[in-house]
Design brief:
Blueprint: E1 12-15, H1 23-29, E2 35-40, H2 41-45, H3 48-58, E3 65-70, H4 76-89, E4 93-98, H5 100-115, E5 124-125, E6 135-139, E7 151-156, E8 161-166, E9 174-177, H6 187-206, H7 212-234, H8 237-260, H9 265-277, H10 281-296, H11 301-310, H12 320-337, H13 353-360, H14 375-392
Parallel strand pairs: 1-9, 2-3, 2-4, 4-6, 5-8, 6-9
Antiparallel strand pairs: 7-8
Helix pairs in contact: 4-5, 6-7, 6-8, 6-10, 7-8, 7-11, 9-10, 9-13, 10-12, 10-14, 11-12, 13-14
The chain binds nicotinamide-adenine-dinucleotide.
Length: about 400
């Protein structure tokens, strides 16, 4: 019998080329006066902060502040600093412009502005208890879906651990999802953030908390991403522009999927890697995705067979088991085509694997993996990923 479920989407979404130019009208409509933009240096260099600033000026805002100190795998100290700056400046609305790092920094700052304390006080699910400072998210990568999720992933600098702060209350009020802003992304970042989005869709669809609406979103997103990722990375301008727009839509829908179901083993392991080595999140997910799928696929052959089909595998002549396994080989092919680096390349060493497995086993999403996995199983998966790559050298 189907289990009971709840589906929540507090974020209003506007999608379309040029939609970020509506920022001023949206802020006026919210009755806010002092927008505080949270972004990073790469976005500023790519000219995207200027574009949003121009849209604000054109819409009558002379007063706004650009905080560009976000780093990849954003730190607790940066969240604190962003909050202090925003408070000092009298911000009444935050605008997150960037990838997951800028959006999560802004979510964290919104929590601290409204609740006080330190971001560590809100680690886990449901510690945020009242509405936070209004937040508008403008994503510029094709990966995290953070523009619609209830999560902020922040690096605890003392523990070298990526902690999660989760509550529907921290979801952005509005997401302006503008394909024009992902055209400047370097191909390597399209590849890594695109694999992040694929991981969200696959884990969101196959995890223990999946339900019918997240299933629909997950399969749609897997298909969208697999049909567009290679073109978005390698295509000439005629195909890449549309493929990148489709990737942005795919990552948004993958965010809606996993935001309401969950992520699972890949993220537990990838966040351990990111916490220890500062590995870019999409790369960490891409490396581990096929290895975790290889462990998980036997737990739900039907669903992994559907994943294989959505990834473009043909199943007419295959048994259900072989079709389910084809989902693993399809991801390996994608990683190879996208030149995803190995565990070696990101600096992992074999002595650290037990510590990584231990950290993975305390991740907030461990219970959502479709097949039971704890410290021992994560260690085996890390070792098999490590060995596979050693042989491939
Ligand atoms: P990112 O935000 O760290 O950005 C990566 C790099 O891309 C940066 O150097 C940035 O300057 C550059 N960049 C971004 N957009 C650009 C553009 N349009 N043109 C040129 N350069 C651009 O990358 P990300 O992968 O989007 O975010 C990763 C973070 O998000 C990790 O910390 C991860 O844990 C977190 N995350 C959060 C959620 C969530 O639901 N909150 C989900 C998944 C991942």
């Amino acid at each position: 019998m189907m289990q009971n479920f709840e589906f929540v989407l507090p974020t209003r979404i506007r999608f379309g080329a040029g939609i970020s130019k509506e920022i001023a009208a949206e802020i006026h409509a919210m009755g806010k006066k002092r927008p505080f933009i949270i972004t990073d240096e790469g976005i500023v260099r790519a000219g995207l902060a200027d574009r949003v600033a121009k849209a604000l000026k054109d819409g009558g805002f002379t007063d706004y502040f650009v905080f560009d100190e976000t780093e990849p795998n954003p730190r607790d100290t940066t969240v604190q600093h962003a909050c202090e700056k925003a408070k000092e400046w009298g911000a009444d609305v935050l605008v997150a412009l960037g990838g997951g790092s800028s959006m999560d920094t802004a979510k964290g700052a919104a929590v601290l502005l409204s609740h006080g304390g330190s971001i560590h006080d809100y680690e886990g699910l449901g510690k945020v208890t009242k509405p936070v400072t209004d937040l508008i998210a403008i994503p510029t990568t094709v990966g995290t879906g953070s523009e619609v999720t209830f999560w902020a992933v922040i690096t605890d600098t003392k523990r070298h651990f990526k902690m999660s702060v989760g509550s529907p209350l921290i979801a952005p009020k509005l997401a302006l999802v503008d394909p024009d802003l992902v055209q400047s992304l370097p191909p390597t970042i399209v590849a890594s953030t695109g694999m992040d989005a694929l991981t969200h869709a696959i884990e969101g669809y196959t995890c223990a908390l999946a339900e019918p609406i997240t299933d629909a979103c997950g399969l749609y997103a897997i298909r969208m991403i697999s049909e567009n990722l290679r073109d978005a990375v390698y295509g000439g301008p005629a195909v890449a522009v549309e493929a990148r727009a489709n990737m942005l839509l795919g990552s948004l829908i993958a965010g809606i999927c996993f935001g309401n179901s969950d992520i699972a083993g890949v993220h537990c392991m990838a966040e351990a890697l990111g916490g220890l080595y500062d590995t870019p999140h999409g790369i960490a997910n891409a490396i581990l995705l096929p290895h975790v799928m290889k462990y998980n696929f036997v737990s739900d052959l039907d669903k992994f067979a559907e994943v294989a089909k959505a990834l473009g595998e043909r199943g007419e002549t295959l048994s259900m088991r072989d079709l389910a396994y084809a989902s693993v080989t399809a991801v390996l092919k994608l990683n190879a085509d996208l030149n995803i680096p190995s565990l070696f390349d990101v600096g992992a060493n074999v002595e650290d694997l037990p510590e990584l497995a231990k950290r993975a086993s305390v991740n907030v999403s461990v219970g959502s993996n479709p097949r039971r996995a704890g410290e021992a199983e994560f260690l085996t998966i890390f070792q098999s990923a490590f060995l596979d790559e050693e042989h491939a050298q």
